[in-house]
Amino acid sequence: MSYSLEQLGRHVQGAVHGDSQFNVLKLRSLEQATAQDIAFVNGEKYLEQALASKAGVLIVSKDLVEKLQTQFQLIVVESPYLAFAQLTHLFADTVEFSNIAKTAVIHPTAQLGKNVRIGDYAVIGENVQIGSNSYIYPHVHIGKNVSIGHSAWIESHVSIFAEATIGDQVRIHANTVIGSEGFGFAPYQGRWHRIAQLGRVRIGHQVRIGSNSSIDRGALDDTVIDDGVIIDNLVQVAHNVQIGQHTAIAAKTAIAGSTKIGAHCIIGGASAIAGHLTIADQVQLTGMSMVTKSIHQAGTYSSGTGLLESAAWRKAVVGFRQLSEMPINKLLKQIKVLTARIDQLESHQTVEQANERPNPNDDKKNKL
Amino acid sequence: MSYSLEQLGRHVQGAVHGDSQFNVLKLRSLEQATAQDIAFVNGEKYLEQALASKAGVLIVSKDLVEKLQTQFQLIVVESPYLAFAQLTHLFADTVEFSNIAKTAVIHPTAQLGKNVRIGDYAVIGENVQIGSNSYIYPHVHIGKNVSIGHSAWIESHVSIFAEATIGDQVRIHANTVIGSEGFGFAPYQGRWHRIAQLGRVRIGHQVRIGSNSSIDRGALDDTVIDDGVIIDNLVQVAHNVQIGQHTAIAAKTAIAGSTKIGAHCIIGGASAIAGHLTIADQVQLTGMSMVTKSIHQAGTYSSGTGLLESAAWRKAVVGFRQLSEMPINKLLKQIKVLTARIDQLESHQTVEQANERPNPNDDKKNKL
Amino acid sequence: MSYSLEQLGRHVQGAVHGDSQFNVLKLRSLEQATAQDIAFVNGEKYLEQALASKAGVLIVSKDLVEKLQTQFQLIVVESPYLAFAQLTHLFADTVEFSNIAKTAVIHPTAQLGKNVRIGDYAVIGENVQIGSNSYIYPHVHIGKNVSIGHSAWIESHVSIFAEATIGDQVRIHANTVIGSEGFGFAPYQGRWHRIAQLGRVRIGHQVRIGSNSSIDRGALDDTVIDDGVIIDNLVQVAHNVQIGQHTAIAAKTAIAGSTKIGAHCIIGGASAIAGHLTIADQVQLTGMSMVTKSIHQAGTYSSGTGLLESAAWRKAVVGFRQLSEMPINKLLKQIKVLTARIDQLESHQTVEQANERPNPNDDKKNKL
């Protein structure tokens, strides 16, 4: 797994400055790279770090060439970060299983494309379809009527139910559940009456779902994740949620039932979004956001309080509680009234002073 | 899987308006239903949507019959939502495995009731008891001495340890862990000394636990989940927690050790409840609540801040921090003192004015 | 599994008061213990509970001996909590599988130490190393080149990838994923370009990781968890995070990428820590803390608001929003200005009054 500088340059469509036959062993960070390694410079702000690096080759943008070319061999590209992303694939692990394990239990009606690889003890149900070049890891369970596109990557202990349809080049990481039952119960006379969930999960192409996440099936209609969506670990996607194209959802976020999230959103980690809301396209939420109303405007939104030393925090919490009885605006109004009354007093005093004698101390600089 | 209108009416104890032999193919939402389908109308507020639906049959309450009977066949019930819940069971998927898989590893001392079904590669330990008509999915691991009642539903990749006792008609969804070790460590000289957990998990009847959840065993005494409790996905229930009957806990909630939650509570998603607290019956928490004290009164509680545009939010956070040094009540007190001083000044001025001349501008409307 | 009082005393290096041959059946809580059981008294504040206990033996510190010795047999130790932790190990369950299951799939190049036990259907990859006396539960998947030290405990449905190195006496609870892929994507022209993760996970000795947690592999460098760290359930540790020795992380915490957490920290449950931060040693966070900046000082920190009845909370949230337009300090400044103006008015009035007549009502007690 080593590449010539020429090969790497071609892979990222970059211009090579240096010995095209130079042999690159590893892709590493600026700090860790040594003379046989390649590293990338993610913009001007990493210039100092780059100059201190022991890397043999750097991936850079045009504007940094002059500053780095005497010291390093270079691959010059438009977006070094994108080029780095592309190169990681060359240096990634290969998968250790290369065919269909004898211990896999595959229903005779299942249809597997060319070059599908299935790990030990995987269980593949009735009428399942799996496209070509897909990897199914050990211990995966795929229930009946699920269909998966080509070049999929389904890691160990993933469970897929609910006749889910999954597109091409989808990656689902370990221990995630697709199509678990939505949390639907009709309350009646103090008890919860289960609503069997009848909808499916529909996942588009090039979707990525992290480990230990749960994507519930819809109640009647489907839960839908559009093309290019990326989801991190430990994320909850409840029944009938819809997530638009190329939206990114960071770890530990929860999205409650029937909420629609637009395209190209970025949801910060540990956020919670209530049910039955609509979030516009291009919305960004910072980490741990609490969303209780629909968001109709693109933009960046936040919630929560800053972190304080606990002693100060306890006092601020008291203040927050007091806000419920005396909002800021009411305080402001009281201050306005007082100000008006003082204005009046002062104008009266000024009249009196004018009547009596000049007062050189009547300084109005202090006024609001 | 199709039913006559008469069959459906009987199943929900409803009165049928229409052709009792009419053949219903699917249960769908008002929007998606077509002429062969049944949908339900969840109260007056869905009337408009109902009138626009293409459904062949609607489930309605009495008060809507007049408005809908000319256009639709009807099933008239007391609670359409409950009737809908009951009907979902008729239209639900059947399970794809119908006996005990040859690949299941079942300890010879395990006792299985009638019609128990066990999926491929499940592992059932010593002295395990499983009641009749229970389904154990592929890859489930049930450790020694666990007992499970009848009509249970244990999905793929569930792990059950700690001699857990589980009641009848319990559903545990995929990749959940019952009886994982409680987080108990004695700090001593800068290190954490593990407290092996000796308690069990006791789960009542008709309990539902979602996917990717963790229910820890007790330290010495047991962790207890009472009858009829429903728990969503990715929920943490720590050691020695007790949860009262028919309480509902939404996704991504965390309940710390030894906390007791009453009956008929509803805990909103992504809430966090500290340890060693007591929560009364009938408490409702809105989503993302942070509970650090016991709640002794039934009612609805919340915490957190609203969502703001990030620029405004940053300023509000500064304000929150300032509350720690200057709580609202202290501000109010200052305003009161100023008000008293102005009162005094004005009363003096009034006396003076009375002494001097009448002032028609002395308007007190502005006063607080 | 019963022990003499003498055996128990020796195990915790304590002084025995009572019949050294007394047979102890169980270790239980003060409330549940009966005449054949041992319980522990965790300090003076449990004295009343201790006096009411039916336990046969109590573990106590020196200062409580006098108050309890007439009623109970005692084991006297420096730290009863530590002694309790040590005793739990004597009373803990034994593991039910005692060798290498025939159904385990073990790559011929894997190296297993003495007395390694491997459960049914575990899958152990190429070049995996597992130290002596380690337990690998059923359905575990350990990918190629992973190394695990001696006396490890890896529970059911754990997935380990990314050539992770794991130290001695490490416990990883059920359904946890070690070495899942970090959430790294290069945004380019509205799409997310996957950065294949090339780093590993390095876990020290005596580390404990709970159930359903995700520890991602590093992007280029490694994710590192130092010796003695304890992590609870449903925790997210993103790529390139570093966690210092003996730090404790409670359930449902999320730590974003590249953040470094110091040694001997205690992170409360459901906390979220943003990426690329540095947290000093000895930092404690209370539950549900939101950390968006580095913490350079040891100490205890918090965030969030208190829990309020929802009606009051809604008003407080309005107040919080108003803080973004009118911070407390600005209000304070306005009040200061008003105070100065009133001071001025009063001093003028006092001069006038002195000129005119004495005023016995001129009480300044009310002033700020």
Describe it:
Chains A, B, C: Pathway: Bacterial outer membrane biogenesis; LPS lipid A biosynthesis. 3 copies of one chain form a homotrimer. The first copy, chain A, has 368 residues and is of the alpha/beta class. Chain A has 3 domains: 3-91, MurE/MurF, N-terminal domain (Udp-n-acetylmuramoylalanyl-d-glutamate--2,6- Diaminopimelate Ligase, Chain: A, domain 1), CATH 3.40.1390.10; 158-301, 3 Solenoid (UDP N-Acetylglucosamine Acyltransferase, domain 1), CATH 2.160.10; 310-356. The first copy, chain A, has 6 helices and 39 strands. In chain A, the strands form 6 sheets. A 10-stranded parallel β-sheet of chain A has the order 8-11-14-17-20-25-28-31-34-37, with no helix packed on it. A 10-stranded parallel β-sheet of chain A has the order 10-13-16-19-24-27-30-33-36-38, with no helix packed on it. In chain A, β21 and β22 (191-194) form a beta hairpin. Residues 362-368 of chain A have low confidence and may be disordered. Chains A and C meet through α4, β39, α5 and α6 of A and β21, β22, β37, β38 and α5 of C.
Give the overall shape of chain A.
flat
What is the strand tally of chain A?
A: 39
Strand order of the largest sheet of chain A: 8-11-14-17-20-25-28-31-34-37
Radius of gyration based on Cα positions of chain A? 30 Å
The pair of chains with the biggest contact is: A-C, 90 and 89 residues
Structural class of chain A: alpha/beta
Q: Strand share of the residues of chain A? A: 25-35%
**Helical amount among residues of chain A, as a percent range?**
10-25%
Q: Give the termini distance of chain A in whole angstroms.
A: 72 Å
Oligomer: homotrimer
CATH class of the largest domain in chain A: Mainly Beta
Organism (chains A, B, C): Acinetobacter sedimenti
Catalytic activity (chains A, B, C): a UDP-3-O-[(3R)-3-hydroxyacyl]-alpha-D-glucosamine + a (3R)-hydroxyacyl-[ACP] = a UDP-2-N,3-O-bis[(3R)-3-hydroxyacyl]-alpha-D-glucosamine + holo-[ACP] + H(+)
Protein name (chains A, B, C): UDP-3-O-acylglucosamine N-acyltransferase
Domain UDP-3-O-[3-hydroxymyristoyl] glucosamine N-acyltransferase non-repeat region (chains A, B, C): 23-90
